[in-house]
Design goal:
This protein has 326 residues and is mainly alpha-helical. The chain is 53% helix and 7% strand. Helix 1 links the parallel strand 1 and strand 2. Helix 3 packs across helix 7. It binds iron/sulfur cluster. Iron/sulfur cluster binds next to helix 10, helix 11 and helix 12.
């Protein structure tokens, strides 16, 4: 059966953007495919960061993933830096990755434009991603549209390595994208993708009061100035959040109430708040239980590391042998 690899940066607790945009899909997919889920801390150090915060955030992310529904009895959850073969394979792939394609990666161009000093690690970030996936010879990677280009590079690297060192045989499969059905979740400012660094998120573990304090002033259809102005749901981020969180009948009702000015935006947000809590309360209950018993997270991660280390060693034995490396 096709194996899935998914990675997420250790940004601390999950927010509804990365939950609805990725993690909720992983929770569904873990029942359909063997799934490896990795907290990718090596990726988090390509831009400036605080080592102490990294430690805390890595753990918070693991706890959030388990609370969100990743089931360690079905899926494998671990932290990238606990399996050092990731960096070994990344170095090896650096020797076959085409420089021109790395420089053309849209994310590199965008991220490097925001940095005063650009590290080589930012450029070779997709090579490490290729190593993450191919170390476990994963066939499928759930991604959003913005990651498709990186995955194409993983296929190029797999193809080149296979051609050079595996006599053209598919030792490394060419991983295919599994496009995430959930839409790109915009932040509450309605300006950009939901992101912690932009301060436009709703945390999965925030209290109902904290969530409402953020939802209340959230941006809606900018043309709906007065309560009596009919709105256009499709241009409103609150409507898109309803589509991700509310039952179908409620979503239909929202569209009618909005376009006929039957509701004000606050009424609409109150209903969204209820839908959000219905989704988040079970997650928060699991998070509370995990916090009360911290050994659980440690044990899950240790067992994930043990399993992934075995798989990584198997892959690297073949890779080293084929490449004449001891
Ligand atoms: S009524 Fe709801 S969907 Fe319509 S503009 Fe207001 S918040 Fe958005």
């Amino acid at each position: 059966m096709s194996r899935i690899f998914s990675g997420i940066q250790p940004s601390g607790e999950l927010h509804i953007g990365n939950y609805l945009g990725a993690v909720r899909n992983w929770v569904r997919l873990q029942h359909q495919h063997p799934s490896i889920i990795c907290v990718v801390d090596y990726h988090a150090i390509t831009v400036s960061y605080d080592p102490e915060q990294l430690r805390v955030r890595r753990r918070d992310m693991a706890l959030s993933l388990l609370a969100a529904g990743i089931d360690p009895n079905i899926a494998t959850l671990f932290v990238q830096s606990t399996v050092p073969e990731h960096t070994e394979l990344a170095w090896i792939f650096n020797t076959v990755a085409p420089l021109g394609e790395l420089e053309r990666q849209t994310q590199f161009k965008e991220k490097s434009a925001r940095q005063e000093s650009v590290s080589a690690g930012l450029l070779t970030y997709p090579v490490l991603q290729a190593a993450d996936i191919l170390l476990y010879r994963a066939d499928l990677v759930p991604v959003g549209e913005d990651q498709v280009q990186h995955l194409e590079l993983s296929r190029v690297i797999a193809r080149r390595w296979n051609a050079q060192f595996a006599g053209g045989q598919d030792f490394f499969p060419e991983p295919q994208p599994l496009l995430t059905p959930a839409r790109r979740i915009m932040g509450l400012d309605g300006q950009a993708k939901m992101s912690k660094s932009l301060g436009n998120t709703v945390g999965l573990l925030e209290t109902p009061e904290q969530i409402w304090a953020k939802l209340r002033p959230a941006v809606t259809d900018p043309k709906r100035v007065k309560r009596t102005d009919p709105g256009t749901p499709e241009v409103c981020n609150i409507y898109h959040l309803h589509k991700a969180l509310s039952p179908a009948a409620t979503v239909e009702h929202v569209a009618v109430q909005c376009s006929t000015a039957g509701w004000g935006c606050i009424d609409c947000k109150k209903v969204l708040h209820e839908s959000m809590l219905a989704e988040l309360v079970p997650i928060q209950t699991r998070a509370k239980a995990l916090r009360a018993n911290p050994r659980t997270v440690d044990d899950v991660l240790a067992s994930g590391t043990a399993k992934c280390s075995r798989m990584a060693r198997e892959t690297m034995t073949v890779v080293r042998e084929r490449m004449g490396i001891t």
